Amino acid sequence: MTDADKLAAIRAALPALASGIHLNTGSVGPMPAEVVAAMTELETYERDIGRAHVDYHLGSLERMAEARAGVAAVIGSDLEEVALTHATTDGMNIATWGLDWRPSDRAVTTTQEHAGALGPLYALRDRIGVDLGFADVGDGSDDERTLAAFDRAIVPGTRLVSVSHVLWSTGAVLPVARIAALARERDVVVVVDGAQAAGAIPVSVRELGADAYAVPAQKWLLGPEGMGALWVARGSLDRIRPSLTGHFSLASYDSRGKGEWHPDARRFETAGYHRPSVVGMARAIGWLSMYVGLEYVHRRGRAMARRAADALAAVPGVELLTPREQMATLVSFRIGGWAPQAALDELGARVFAIARTIPLLDALRISVGFFTSEEELDRFIGGVRLLAEHTPESLPARRILPILGEG
Asked: Model-level pTM?
């Protein structure tokens, strides 16, 4: 297929794209029609036949294995190193609380982390007394500054480094492999938030050298909400263990019932997975990997994001916050004279753009996917240009469509 034909086929398989310019996959992406169909089929089966037969349970275990395998293919790991979770935040909590913490210990993160990673760290500080250090990485554009900040922050007593692969705020790709190497030299565990990387850019957890890597299903993998995965390196299973105060269930035990943990990452899984969502997660990743192709996903996604960043940087009055030489698929920016929410409201009404604000930076953020068309980006940039040429007070009124009828 030509690129144009392939893009048309992809967009036809993502019906939600017809509802507006979808630029918020960094929060939640559009689901392929076949994913929704598979989930609906299973929900119908559960309604009409039920969920109690043992064969249905055994089939569900196979679907869980398929979901793990899909994640393993995306991040370059073995199936046995992947556990299903309910979100990236769930995975970050599991890995963070999995260490045997003492009040004298220290954890280090960055000044740009998402709440999903910060939450368990603040809880460690407040409940146990763990010291929390921050590496000031700025906007993430300078690797040497980032590494120097971690070098200063990882002092004796540090047990954990918690860091994003791609910053949710500026969209910068951090030098995780170099950070992990620095941490390993000091015998420090590294847990990575991969929410804005897995499915958006190539990921090889082995090359990164981390101990654990958490991903969501609903963002760049285009799956359902309420699902995610946690990768834990085989060599780190003795250091990161299921927390008895949190993730602890029969699902974590070996099937022999001897009270032993599973020998692989399944020890981190809990009971209570929504079976249609497990199927949807596996189907979505399979659709990306086999129907679209990860090479196409990664190549076109980053190219379109760079196109958007270049175009925004060229608009007078727009301040681009994403470092163009270190970007993935997120683009953050400000429009002079406009509060982010007011600008987002106007762009939604004028060009039907679906994006979000980043309060941490007082900015707007768009997520540009492999499925985003050039025409959509041109319309969006045109809307930004219009706003940048005006203030909220001088902006021309939106055209309205009069509807004639009785009265």
From this structure: 0.94
